[in-house]
Amino acid sequence: MNVAIQGEPGSFSHEAALRFSSETTIFPCALSAEVFSAVDERRVDAAVIPIENSLAGSVVEHYDLLLTHDVVIERELLLRIRHNLIAVPGTRLDQIHRVYSHPVALAQCRHFLGQHPQIEAIPHYDTAGSVKQLMELRDRSSAAIASAEAASYYGGEILAAGIEDNPENYTRFFLIRLHSEIVSDPAADKVSLAFTVENRPGTLVEALQVFASQGTNLTRIESRPVHGQPWHYVFYTDYQLSSPESADAALALLSRHCSMVKELGRYRAGQREG
Questions:
Q1: Do residues 7 and 130 touch, judged by C-beta distance below 8 A?
Q2: Number of CB atoms found within 10 A of residue 137's CB
Q3: Is 112 noted as a catalytic residue in this protein?
Q4: How confident is the model at residue 260 (pLDDT cuts 50, 70, 90)?
Q5: First to last CA, the chain
Q6: Which SS3 state, helix, strand or coil, does residue 3 take?
Q7: Active site includes 20?
Q8: Fold for domain 190-273?
Q9: Catalytic-role residue among 91, 127, 171, 216
Q10: What is the spatial distance between Cα 32 and Cα 47, in angstroms, rounded to a whole number?
């Protein structure tokens, strides 16, 4: 299976893709929009995207892209995020004066960096990309923060493992495909959808009451602005299924209260891994 990801090989998205299927060939993309275009144009079979981190919150750009592309969520994965200090093999910790990584990864390792004030934290576009750069330059005064997969892929050495501040650090990933290539899963127990309501009193409450009336458990709601329509919002929700019929009924009832409803995926709830 050819799978597009945003970022370099060895990234957490790469690791998630391998958890979805070990028989995976990675198609790395620089930008998230390129990931979705690769799926649209059938240059890949699927894509893996992070949608939410348990500490940093949502990847809001991916919500917007899910809405505007003809793709569907097929599976969900909750991946444990472990950050590691990675250096050129043979480098000692006391030699390190700079560390590169994605800003979110740096922010999640504040305690470790505070214990080593001689190390300057420098933002980089990608965790795995910081390891790739490090190994290309062979700079023994620098290090990177990334996954063990990145260290293995590029030949780096882990000087300190598990340096994240909070062990309850998980990222939720989606495996997405073109709508026309999805096969329904009879064991699906979760739905993601997007909807908009008219900007008048009570419309959001009416929409949310639909979920309660069907006995569904609304597990998440996120709002995003509608582009070109100031002060109008798209609401993204996740809810657990009591039965496939309840999902169909909820969609039908929502359509009475909402100006737009789009089901983004019907899939099995992911379990914590890693």
A1: no
A2: 10
A3: no
A4: very high
A5: 22
A6: strand
A7: no
A8: Alpha-Beta Plaits (3.30.70)
A9: 171
A10: 10
How far is Cα of residue 127 from the mean position of the Cα atoms in its chain?
14
Q: Which residue has the tokens 């650090």?
A: 169
Q: What is the DSSP code (8-state) at residue 236?
A: E
Q: For the ranges 13-27, 142-156, 237-251, which has the lowest average pLDDT?
A: 237-251
For tokens 């958890």, name the residue. Answer: 19
Say how far apart CA 66 and CA 175 lie, in whole Å. 12
Cα–Cα distance measured from residue 215 to residue 221, given in angstroms and rounded to the nearest whole number: 17
131-156 per-position pLDDT tens digit: 999 999 999 999 999 999 999 999 99
Indicate the pTM of the whole model. 0.92
Question: Does the domain spanning 2-80+169-180 belong to CATH 3.30.10.20?
Answer: no
Torsion sign across C-alpha atoms 90, 93, 96, 98: positive
R_g of the chain, CA atoms, integer Å? 21
Catalytic, out of 20, 27, 112, 173: 173
Place of tokens 């893709």: 17
Across the chain, which distance is largest between two alpha carbons, in Å? 65
DSSP 8-state symbol, 268: P
| Cα angle for residues 8, 11, 15 (degrees, 5° grid) | 125
Split at pLDDT 50, 70, 90, the class of 245 is confident
Of the candidate CATH numbers 3.40.640.10, 3.40.190.10, 3.40.50.300, 2.40.110.10, the domain formed by 84-160 belongs to 3.40.190.10
Angle at 22 between CA 18 and CA 25, to 5 degrees: 75
Pair of tokens at residue 137: 């330059």
User: How many other CB atoms are there within 10 angstroms of residue 64's CB atom?
Assistant: 18
79: amino acid identity, one letter:
L
